[in-house]
Amino acid sequence: MEIAQIVVFGVIAAIFITFIRQSRPEIAQLLSLAVGIVIVAYLLGYLKMIIDVITDLALEAEINTVFLRTLLRVIGVAYLAEFGAQICRDAGEGSIAVKIEFAGKLIILVMAIPILIAVLQGIVNFIP
After folding, report:
1. Where are the domains of the chain?
2. Looking at the predicted structure, is the pLDDT value of residue 90 above 80?
3. Which residue of 24, 26, 58, 65 is most buried, as measured by CB atoms within 10 A?
């Protein structure tokens, strides 16, 4: 029931931050950021479990670890960019959020180039 703990923590924090925002909006913004970081930090243990399971499955299936590492990095970049963009949106900086999302997409595209090349080489080698 960890989700219940996260939800209760988030709701209590949101109510508390709402009251603080009326008198000290700058403190409320920092508290909101801190709550987000605490929730993400709490979930890091689960993230490690997921990565371990995916790694074990990839090793059993004899999948190239370079592809697996790239896939995990792409997922990490996507989540990090989304988290950063949401923080910027919460702070009222939608323009910066869009730039963070664009940077994340561009970095993911660059990271995917080796996989794209391998797939294209496989297709070329498959066609006589």
Report:
1. 1-46, 64-128
2. yes
3. 58
Q: What is the pTM of this model?
A: 0.76
In three-state secondary structure terms, 122 is helix
Max CA separation in the chain (angstroms): 72
78 within 8 A of 104, measured Cβ to Cβ:
yes
Share of the chain above pLDDT 70, in %: 99
**How far is Cα 74 from Cα 108, in angstroms, rounded to an integer?**
6
Model pLDDT, residue 1: 62
Secondary structure element (H or E) that encloses residue 33, with its range: helix 25-60
Per-residue CA distances from 82 to 66, 99, 114 (Å): 24, 11, 24
Angle at 102 between CA 97 and CA 103, to 5 degrees: 100
Residue 31, judged by CB atoms within 10 A of its CB (0-12, 13-18, 19+), counts as middle
Q: What angle do CA 71, 72, 77 make, to 5 degrees?
A: 100
